[in-house]
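Dear U.,

For the methods section draft, I wanted the exact inputs and outputs in one place so we can describe them consistently. I've listed the two proteins in the order they'll appear in the manuscript figures. Please don't edit the token lines directly; just add comments below if something needs changing.

First protein:
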Amino acid sequence: MKFSAPPQEPVKYVESLVWLPYHYVAGDYRAVYLRALKDKKILGSRCDKTGRVFVPPVINSPESFAPCSELVQVSDRGRITTFCIVNIPVIGRNLELPYVAASVLLDGADVPMFALIQECRVEEVHMGMRVEAVWKPDDQRQGDHEDILYFRPSQEPASGDWPRPL
């Protein structure tokens, strides 16, 4: 193979189609978590050392490295810990701009999960806001992360204990 001299100008952009097939294997904890979503249940795992609950469940705590041997059900309601207003479209998602992406600390969990916030104006979203999951209809849930469509404001008032240390 014969190579020519390097280009005089640096390459700034390359357009190419890439095919990256993969097969995801959930593992025991994640498979139980995903099956529970089909029944509108959210599971976490409790750290044997610290008692902290991680959602989705993990086998070992990323903080203490201790086993998380107990699976526990947490609420599908929680509180927004932080959020951002998104004004840039995401390829593959058909969301009306702007929208809110937030960290939601579910009741009974100690680590927030990332979620979409809908059914309110972006100006109304705030840290500490109480939210609830909006689930797919019973006959459409399949046991995957898309079984929770998004979170919406609940009618619960924000409590005075916010923010709390995580």
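Second protein (the one for the lower panel):
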Amino acid sequence: MAKVYHLDLDKKSIRGARIVLLPGDPERSGLIADEIAKVYGGRAERLASKREFFTHVARCDGLNVLVTSTGIGGPSASIAVDELARLGVRTFIRVGTTGAIQKDIKAGDVVITTGAVRLDGASTHYAPLEYPAVADFTVVNALIAGARKAGIKWHAGVTASSDTFYPGEERGDSFRNYVIKRLQGSAAEWRNLHVLNYEMESATILTMTASMGLMGGCITGVVNRAGGRAISEKNLRLGERNAVMAAVRALGDLTGR
């Protein structure tokens, strides 16, 4: 099989990997691979880098695990999932950062998504809106176990997954400092419906994996409260680190070793 177009990978290059962790940030790809190697005594290596898609491989309990960055948002995430599935990957876990909606969720906590509110557009190209964006039960349980092993406070529940960072999350710090009428009050509505957080990729990834018979999940580290103050460097690093630590420790349950 020739290399897939965007990821610049082929079946041989991924070395039999069936699990991938999906950060948004390309720089986070190498950091996660290094953490896998550190925890499981393996070795990390970069396989490819093209556009926003940086892929590393690391050994986990004798098996290879991929880490591929998706960039920001559903459209680019859908490309990564689609092309990796063609290469034989079957378990997809988003590892990112998030803004909390509920007041009891603090910076540094992690949110494990069980289902996503589909505020995106990309997922509608894979399944109609009536189709739920749900995480795989086995993946959710592994992520919970990973958070417990890492000693990190976790919350499991529904995520609002928006195509846009500013109006979709009802932020007022954009260029126009304006949110269209349809989205005004949306954060309060999601809060009252017990939605936990905002992020930008889970609706696409979970719709794709569920509808294709694949395994999908999402874990995100909390870096601020939606609609609140700007994200501090300290909270960004804390949320990022905790999500990575929990996701990496979840791999032991998923590899079956």
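Candidate sentences for the figure legend, describing the second protein: Residues 19-255 form a domain with the Rossmann fold fold (CATH 3.40.50.1580). Residues 233-255 form the longest helix (23 residues).

Thanks,
Y.
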